[in-house]
Design brief:
With 556 residues, the protein is α+β, with helices and mostly antiparallel strands. The protein is 46% helix and 20% strand.
Amino acid sequence: MEKLLAQKKLVPRWYERFPRGVPVSIFGLTMAVTQLSVFAIETAEDRRQAALTAQTAQAVASGLERRSNANAAYLRSSAALFATQQMVEAPLFRTFIRQLHLDGRYVGSDGIGWAMKVRREDIPTVEAILRQGGSPDFAVRPVPSADRPFVIPVMFIEPDTVRNRRAIGFDMFSEPVRRAAMKSAERTGQPTATGRVVLQQEGQSTDASGFLVYMPVFAIESAASSRTLRGYVYSPFNAQSFLESSIDVSHLGGAGVRLFDEDAGGRRLMAEIATENGSGQRVRRAIDIAGHRFVLEIEAQATPMLSIMSVMSLLFGLLVATLLLVLARLLTQQAVEDRIALAWFEQQSSIRNSLTRELNHRVKNTLANVLSIVSLTRRRATSLAEFADSLENRIRALSATHDLLTQSDWGTTPVMLVVKAELAPYAQDTHRHLDIDGPEVELAPNDALSLGLAIHELATNAAKYGALSVEGGSVSVRWEMAGENLARIEWIERGGPVIDPATRRKRGFGTELIEKIVAHELRNPVDLSFEPEGVRCTLLIPVRRRGDFSIRERRS
């Protein structure tokens, strides 16, 4: 496992570098695909709607043209019959028209009428004849001006209704729109429609639109090259009635229909079937009714912003995108956590190796210290019991400092804790005074062991021969920084027995232990002096950074 971790390079993969960006990108991509799908669906729906609207427009246009063509056929038949007659009288006209229209079905028009061309000087005679023939109120209107050589008034119209009687006597040639259509019909010899007009049948109403279709009637002459206009067979159409009768509203599917008259003057609305819900697609189609251009407009119903299929696709895409977002987030998060775990395992392996090497080093140093302690203790011991007691106490001193180092994970250890741990057996004695004070200074593991051993030896000798051996004695342990990376620790005894410098080594103060082992480990000389007032010992201990010793700090 360790070999695999050592061989594996813990380089973050591209998706691990962006644990939030990758899921968001996948979500965005999925939603983009969903939006493209919705766009395609809506485009197809718009095309379908356009096709349906165009189909509706074609059906409506066909219905209108069929109506106009049927009416044109009736007008041609009537013109052919009337052309053979010397005089178109009321009985003949009514009989023929009633038989022609088959029980009054006038294919969307108000009927069929006869307008005869009358010279201006013959107007009184024609009015008299018609008044005697059953139209007592017949009169040509409006009265023609002096420069008008003829008039073309409405003589008869079927069906004979109150509405149609309003048109009897009206000179259609007096109105410009009608006159233009009549001249065009005379010139072409074909049924010709007018533009937008207000029919005489509408009475006082001026907003009802309509149009007329004229078919000229010529007198039959022997010379084929000459024609004499006798009048016009015509049909008046109310535009709204014509539109409604030409289409089946139930087949519109809610669409709206508008009929416009389009000429040089622009486009004018003539009839309309309103849509149930407008503002949908619009389709315009030009239709020809008796040679005149009309424009048919179909307005589809307004459709929702999104069709049902688009909404379902959008919701499904949102669901899939959310699931992919969550899945991608979980996978990237798991990948990041796995990488962190691998890095942690690699770090733990490195720490274990470092701790093993550190432990070997510590054990070697400790065994060397123990061997030195054993050697010095044996050299100074006078009996086996004394040797065992001295050795046990010194080993205990090493153990106490080891406990402190273990608690700090073999990192730095404060001087205060080392001194208090070694002087703990004497701290509860009220007859002896301990003064321990100094700034917060932390020591490396080896230096802490050496300091602990030195304090133990000084305390043991003080308890046997110095200030701690009598009541009222005092020991002062103070330290301070003697440089950037050096601390000075000073041990001072007062109030103990008077010391004879000549006999200090014989009294077992452990000077060899302090001066040899401790000084060697601290790499600085130890100043140990035996003054009459008491022992004074000055130690110089190097102070190094905490990170140099606390291996586990690398985890952060």
